[in-house]
Design goal:
homodimer, alpha/beta, Carbamate kinase, VC0802-like, 2 domains, 8-stranded mixed sheet, 4-stranded antiparallel sheet, globular
């Protein structure tokens, strides 16, 4: 089995020993055990701050060299803790497991894992402690997988060794229908499909990195999200076939990490949006929602709006200012005070009118909708940031998520 | 050229920028520049303390995984600083340069360096910033080279790329005839031979790791030890042929890092010392002086004494207690309050009576000599720790080291 422990779970010497004890117990129960560990809580931020004190725009290759040390340290500390409890263990770094990624520094994607070294280690009865979040590209450069990347490391390793389960240990005890801090009626979800989890992860539920769910879905790895501070079962993330009850809406999320960017009155001709988003893609900047209407007047001009992470806004600004003239934009506007509120559920596929019901619930609360994006199993609305919590509670109530019978 | 910067030289963001500026200037002056950097001052101790809080006897393989992160971080920070000053730079870790070592974790020896990646990088006009202190063994495990190991990294890299000079930047401005804190009359040495420097390094002069001098001597790499806070020339460490004036004694050192271990009344038969020191060697414990007399009485028993680093004493104790019974030792005694005081000089080869003069100088100060060890170009005496400074000053005066004309 694969067990992944996040930063708070390895955040102190005591907690590291707690993780070691869990791993030793899991092995004693007859499992082959592979651990994936994050950096100790706060360590990644400390390292990135150090880099930013040296230069405001640090090179991303070098940033990854620094950031990867957080997991390097915690993997060795956990291995030592297991040894001190009488177990056998050894640490593995990204380059030692040949966790091969592309070269998109700070947000690389795993391409392949050579599981041979792991298999050898397991065969010798040793617990393997893998540094999460990191890999190497073809040239041997160190890469990191972006925030939450250790989740993806864990699922990818689980897929590579064909583990029965990938347990994700965290400081909450599972995935909830909404953030319990915002919505007192929120309930823990027992089982959820990869597709729904994918949308929830993409929409601001912090419990799993989105990419990790994609990999789990692709390779059919069951994920069990649970607390490292208790033995209670958490939330299983599984394939649709695995006996899920169909509900219309499974969860409600909100996300304030994005900002809205509007290029005002760009020329409405072929190639314009390709220019804008091609330039952003060339800088490896992820764009989320994109909204563009055909021009409705005689000016032949239209507005192009998109959302992107606030943390990327400095880089977005540079790119957009550079292309603004090229596409004849009259102005570029940034709006930071927004939230994206979303509902997710497999049941939307077969139930018509779910989006309309969402708009109605928000309307009744007097919340103006600035933009809308939909997929097969989710609806997202951009609203003013100040309404985020109100919107989540209203939607959670409106779709009856507090009623325990509706989710399996 | 190769420039190596120690922990104090990269100990803060300002100092990192100072190092970057020096490197950029050296490149602008027409040099191909390779930097070797240590961990930021205090960082290695912080990391090792963290490990010791997890377990009192941490596994050495895992300890190296942790310790290596200090240099990993500083190499990337220095590369970033150079970039922010308009230069081209990239960091290289031990496994990226294939700095191949044996598997003696925490005190590994460099076996080979693949300089191809460095040559490529230099050819592109980039300053290479190499993480010192670290390498990889044949199995891809991370190893470290022991305290001061970055000096050895630097000299080995200089040898691999056939650099004209290996500059070792430190917080002192060169090698002195004695520790200026102990001996006010101590002078900076302008040129010193590899052989003498080797003895000084082995005898407690902290300015260069001993192994680095061995490598420099083997490959004929000129070392220039100098201050990172000034432009004044420091001390050149060179081959004997390079115009050194012959003086009887070049330097005086003292070293309180060792303890004396005595196995009392062991059986005086073949194989006994092999058993004792074989067991220590099997644990990779370095022993310094070894003193054994033939048994002088009818008991057929003798005392075996040796010195070893105080920091290794816990491990020494385990090994020695295990073999003590085997060799029939009546008792094992440890003495921590000792110092090794030494004189070093090429001139001893051709001048008789240097050792006798040393004993006489110590005798006149009322200092008892507990043990003696000599080599072709050094004499060391073990004395009570409290006499260490007095002994150094007396020897420095007695051999006329304060007179500037005697050293070239």
């Amino acid at each position: 089995m694969v067990q992944k422990y996040g930063g708070t779970s390895v955040g102190s010497v005591d907690r590291i020993h707690n993780v070691a004890a869990r791993a030793v117990a899991a092995q004693a129960a007859g499992n082959e055990v592979v651990l994936i560990v994050s950096a100790m809580a706060g360590e990644t931020n400390r390292l990135l701050d150090l880099a930013r004190r040296v230069t405001e725009l640090p090179d991303r290759r070098e940033l990854d060299v620094i950031a990867a040390t957080g997991e390097q340290v915690s993997s060795a500390l956990v291995a030592m803790a297991i040894q001190s409890q009488g177990g056998k263990a050894r640490s593995f770094l990204g380059h030692q497991l040949k966790i091969r990624t592309d070269s998109a520094f700070t947000s690389a994607r795993i391409l392949a894992i050579d599981a041979e070294a792991l298999r050898q280690s397991l065969k010798h009865g040793s617990i393997a402690v893998v540094a999460g979040f990191q890999g190497v590209d073809d040239a041997g450069n160190i890469t990191t997988l972006g925030r939450g990347g250790s989740d993806t490391s864990a699922v990818a390793v689980a897929a590579a060794i064909r583990a029965d389960v990938c347990e994700i240990y965290t400081d909450v005890d599972g995935v909830y229908t909404a953030d319990p801090n915002v919505c007192p009626g929120a309930r823990k979800i027992e089982r959820i499909s990869y597709e729904e989890m994918l949308e929830l992860a993409a929409l601001g539920a912090k419990v799993l990195q989105r990419r990790s769910v994609e990999v789990a879905m692709k390779y059919g790895v069951p994920i069990h999200v649970r607390s490292s501070f208790s033995d209670a079962p958490g939330t299983w993330v599984v394939g649709e076939e695995a006996g899920l009850e169909s509900v219309v809406v499974t969860g409600v999320t909100s996300d304030k990490s994005e900002a809205r960017v509007m290029l005002v009155a760009v020329e409405d001709r072929p190639g314009v949006v390709a220019t804008i988003f091609g330039a952003l893609a060339a800088e490896n900047i992820s764009v989320d929602m994109i909204i563009q209407n055909a021009s409705s007047d005689a000016t032949g001009r239209t507005d192009v709006t998109f959302t992107a992470a606030k943390s990327e806004l400095d880089r977005v600004d540079k790119v957009v200012q550079a292309v603004a003239e090229q596409v004849g934009a009259r102005e570029v506007r940034f709006e930071r005070d927004i939230a994206k509120v979303s509902i997710v559920g497999l049941g939307m596929r077969s139930h018509a009118g779910v989006a309309a019901r969402m708009f109605d619930i928000l309307f009744r609360e007097g919340i103006n909708i600035q933009a809308i994006a939909t997929s097969e199993i989710k609806v997202s609305c951009i609203v003013a940031a100040k309404y985020a919590e109100l919107a989540v509670r209203a939607l959670h109530d409106g779709f009856g998520l507090d009623r325990p019978t509706t989710t399996g």
